[in-house]
Amino acid sequence: MILNILFIVIGIVLVLWGADRLTDGAVAVAEKMKMPQIVIGLTIVAMGTSMPEFCVSLISALKGTSDLAVGNIVGSNIFNTLLIVGVSALVAPMSIMKTTVRKDIPFALVASALLLIMCLDGDISRIDAAILFVMFLIFMYITLRGAKVQGTDVEEKEKKPMATWLSVVWILVGLACLIGGSNLFVDGATAVATKLGVSEAVIGLTIVAGGTSLPELATSVVSARKGNSGIAIGNVLGSNVFNILAILGLTGVISPMTLKGITMTDLSMMVISIILIWLFSFTKYKIERWEGAILTAVFVGYIYSLL
């Protein structure tokens, strides 16, 4: 038990430090490439911080535990939109670009609603998964094409810009710490929960989903604290879209999945959480601290209902 608790602590430290390095590297890349922070958050950072979900879901599907694969994604997305955006907004009000409200959030909402519809029959077939992955390719095309039009929203800084090789090193080191730290956390937390007699279903929807979302939480909170809210909100939206369209798309093509422990309540909460962010975004294109408090409270209520 003591060793597992130590794993949890080390995992959290690695994730926080890794998020700091990843954010610095990603912002430097945005400056070098003259790309908006939102695009970096929606692509490089989002994909990197979603690697834990990808590993867990793929291995789960291959082992025949597809309910864990889907549960991990649904739980992670709820964790992302309610707790991560909520806590990040509590740390510092998050400014949101108009293009995010008009394009990125609606796309995340469509992806969530589509997954809910596909799950009504209790299965995610290879055809369903292929549709999800094609939508992911379309999303990436639209995002990258939009980057050329938007130009850059990164403010000029007086400090000397980070060397390209160093920014790449920090991104790789940050991702390694994020993935390694979250794995330590999940292993330690799962072992502790099992010893305490918590069911595997609850572990999957809470500890595993929360653990694999630690990178998004750390990256978004650090980004918000540093004033890079474009990275913070882009990371959450990009991760949600990547989780559903890319991870479930690839996983489902490899191994069709059957739902067991995931209910319509869980899937509906995933959709509702995106709608809440969308509604809050229309208030001066900013998520204020009180709105962050509401998102966090809704997440706590959802977890309480699960337990």
Automatic annotation (TrEMBL):
<dbReference type="GO" id="GO:0005262">
    <property type="term" value="F:calcium channel activity"/>
</dbReference>
<keyword id="KW-1133">Transmembrane helix</keyword>
<dbReference type="GO" id="GO:0005886">
    <property type="term" value="C:plasma membrane"/>
</dbReference>
<dbReference type="InterPro" id="IPR004481">
    <property type="entry name" value="K/Na/Ca-exchanger"/>
</dbReference>
<protein>
    <submittedName>
        <fullName>Cation:H+ antiporter</fullName>
    </submittedName>
</protein>
<dbReference type="InterPro" id="IPR004837">
    <property type="entry name" value="NaCa_Exmemb"/>
</dbReference>
<dbReference type="GO" id="GO:0008273">
    <property type="term" value="F:calcium, potassium:sodium antiporter activity"/>
</dbReference>
<keyword id="KW-0472">Membrane</keyword>
<dbReference type="Pfam" id="PF01699">
    <property type="entry name" value="Na_Ca_ex"/>
</dbReference>
<keyword id="KW-0812">Transmembrane</keyword>
<dbReference type="GO" id="GO:0006874">
    <property type="term" value="P:intracellular calcium ion homeostasis"/>
</dbReference>
<dbReference type="InterPro" id="IPR044880">
    <property type="entry name" value="NCX_ion-bd_dom_sf"/>
</dbReference>
